[in-house]
Design goal:
Number of strands of chain B: 11
Order of helices and strands of chain A: HHHEE
Radius of gyration of chain A: 22 Å
Shape of chain B: globular
Strand order of the largest sheet of chain A: 1-2
Number of helices of chain A: 3
Distance between the termini of chain B: 20 Å
Helix content of chain A: 25-40%
Number of strands of chain A: 2
CATH class of one domain in chain B: Alpha Beta
Strand content of chain A: under 5%
Oligomer: heterodimer
Strand content of chain B: 5-15%
Strand order of the largest sheet of chain B: 4-6-5-10-11-9-7-8
Largest sheet of chain B: 8 strands, mixed
Shape of chain A: flat
Chain lengths: 104, 488
């Protein structure tokens, strides 16, 4: 469960950057962790001013347009284009994507 | 024959319909201009050969009486729109040699209307930037120059530069926080972001889906209207596409603004705004008054929170949208020791600094424990911004503001604080958060002879009023300055 009161009192640390990078599937060199933490802290400190806004009882805006999500019939509308799907694959073989082993 | 690249889109369409020149001649003239302007780095990919074939085919259609809305017009396409069989990069290395096997809905509409595509225009990587300097394909140089190279703005910097340099009659662009309007202001061109949902997002590389909206950059307000009429329209492939009619906006241009109530938001008079921009804004107010509009002071009290809210919402959506770039199904792959290592290496090599920064901010604000404090709060602030506009519409029909807080600045200007760059969008980002239409019109030159724009914001789906007000502004400003062709 998320804690609505939680915000980075002491800012983002180099360790936090390492964790964020892992979640983001990005590789950050050790000597870049601290500079990036400082970057992020600068941006996050600026974002903190959102706390000045009274949002009590305000609904979050999730869509820019007031409309119902459209529904369509659950039926196949496209397909049979295997070669097109594979055309931009970094590696493919016999009509399949070739990816690194993911199950040991 | 007169220089065909000096024409407006409207004039060129008219000239072809009268038989003054062919699409082939028009296209050839623009290809020559593109080649002369190669150093501006406006294009990532040029498609001159297929453009000449399209022009020939267009002339043949015209001979048979088949004339689309953009019949035979040589135009540029921001390299964020997927184009069938033509490399699409989003300004990033991560897409490698990706050549989409499909066409974006916006460009498909334009091709069906007779567009001749000259090529794919440069942009900030994944449209994240305000100077076009984050592109993996190098910065675009603004045709407007003062002692040194200037940025064309961003992210649609290639689109704006190509139109300003008369390399194409108009171009597609996209706007997530100001990426159509700020470059238009920086290059003396017109750019409109329509109401969210007017243009289909299908086939356009996604940055922040609840904010992204396509629109044109053009030489005149009327040209922008002609282009937007072609680009817009309902598309069942985009679930946020609006199923509403596309009005004839070109007919709204030149309409009287007598009695129109123009709101002037006091919160846009920010500290540190250059005096020249304040003066231009005052001039714009006087112009609108002279044209018969009624000037109404208004208040948009949550304006200062728009940019910080944007820098939560946009990176959050970007971190999610950009998760798809994993080097497995398309794009570049860097092989690693195992699957996770391959992901990490691929994404680290493929994304530039600013994109990586925004992915990390987005990942952080969405991560467990911080979601409510950042993302949910930003979404609520967004509702407050929408309420501000709804209150304003009680007393006015459209809003006049400056487009950008500065004139174009030098390429390579050292920016140590990313927030400084983000401030470029301070006047444009509110309409993205609220989903409203906004247009930038060139209104004057600063003391250095560099262009400055004014912005008209309208109610949702009321582009008609936006175009009327913008064309009144255009007429009053009489902006006819062009950059010296120093690049030839």
């Amino acid at each position: 469960m998320s804690d609505p009161q939680k915000s980075p009192e002491n800012g983002v640390s180099a360790d936090d950057v390492k964790k964020i990078a892992r979640l983001s599937r990005l590789d950050v060199a050790d000597d870049r962790l601290q500079p990036i933490a400082e970057d992020l802290n600068g941006i996050l400190a600026w974002i903190e001013q959102l706390n000045e806004v009274d949002v009590e009882g305000v609904e979050p805006m999730t869509s820019a347009v007031d409309m119902d999500a459209p529904l369509r019939k659950d039926e196949i509308t496209d397909g049979g284009v295997r070669d097109k799907v594979l055309a931009n694959a970094p590696k493919s073989e016999d009509g399949f994507f070739v990816v690194p082993r993911s199950v040991e | 024959m007169a220089d065909l690249t000096k024409m407006t889109l409207e004039g060129a369409l008219d000239g072809m319909s009268k038989g003054d020149f062919s699409s082939e001649e028009l296209t050839k003239a623009h290809i020559d201009a593109c080649m002369e302007g190669a150093d501006l780095n406006a294009f990532i990919t040029t498609t001159f050969e297929s453009a000449m074939e399209s022009a020939k085919a267009s002339d043949a259609r015209r001979a048979k009486g088949e004339v689309g809305k953009l019949e035979g017009a040589p135009l540029g396409v921001k390299d964020l729109f997927c184009t069938e069989g033509v490399k699409t990069t989003a300004g990033s290395k991560i897409l490698g040699d990706f050549a989409p096997p499909y066409e974006s809905s916006v460009t498909a509409n334009m091709k069906a209307d007779g567009m001749v595509m000259l090529g794919k225009l440069n942009l900030d990587e994944f449209a994240m930037g305000s100077s076009n300097e984050t592109s993996a394909f190098g910065p675009v140089i603004n045709p407007w120059r003062k002692d040194e190279d200037l940025v064309p703005g961003g992210s649609s910097g290639g689109s704006a530069a190509a139109v300003a340099a008369d390399m194409c009659l108009g171009a597609t662009a996209t706007d997530t926080g100001g990426s159509i309007r700020q470059p238009a202001s920086f290059t003396g061109t017109v750019g409109i972001k329509p109401t969210y949902g007017r243009c289909s997002r299908w086939g356009t590389v996604a940055f922040a889906s609840s904010l992204d909206q396509a629109g044109p950059i053009a030489k005149t307000v009327k040209d922008a209207a002609i282009l937007l009429e072609s680009m817009s329209g309902y598309d069942s492939k985009d679930s946020t596409s609006l199923n509403v009619d596309v009005p004839k906006w070109s007919e709204s241009c030149g309409k009287s603004v007598k009695g129109l109530r123009i709101g002037i938001p006091k919160e846009y008079a920010i500290d540190g705004m250059p005096a020249e921009i304040q003066a231009l804004w005052d001039q714009g107010i006087a112009w609108m008054k002279d044209a018969g509009a009624e000037i109404v002071p208004i208040t948009l009290p949550h304006t200062k929170y728009a940019l910080p809210a944007y820098y939560v919402v946009a990176p959050a959506e970007a971190s999610s949208n950009l998760a798809r770039y994993d080097g497995m199904r398309y794009g570049a792959r860097v092989d690693g020791a195992d699957l996770n290592d391959t992901y990490d290496l691929t994404r680290t090599a493929g994304f530039g600094d600013e994109v990586r920064r925004r992915i990390m901010i987005g990942t952080y604000v969405l991560s467990a424990g911080y979601y409510d404090a950042y993302y949910l709060r930003a979404q609520k602030v967004r509702t407050r911004i929408v309420e501000d506009f709804e209150n304003a519409w009680q007393t006015c029909d459209a809003i006049l503001t400056p487009t950008a807080p500065s004139a174009p600045f030098a390429v390579g200007r050292k920016v140590t604080d990313p927030v400084q760059m983000y401030l470029n969008d301070i006047f444009t980002v509110t309409t993205n958060l609220a989903g409203l239409p906004g247009i930038s019109v060139p209104a004057g030159l600063d003391a250095n002879g560099l262009p400055l724009g004014l912005q008209i914001i309208g109610k949702a789906l009321d582009e008609a009023t936006v175009f009327s007000a913008a064309s009144a502004l255009e007429k009053a400003a009489g902006f006819s300055a062009k950059p010296d062709k120093w690049w030839v």
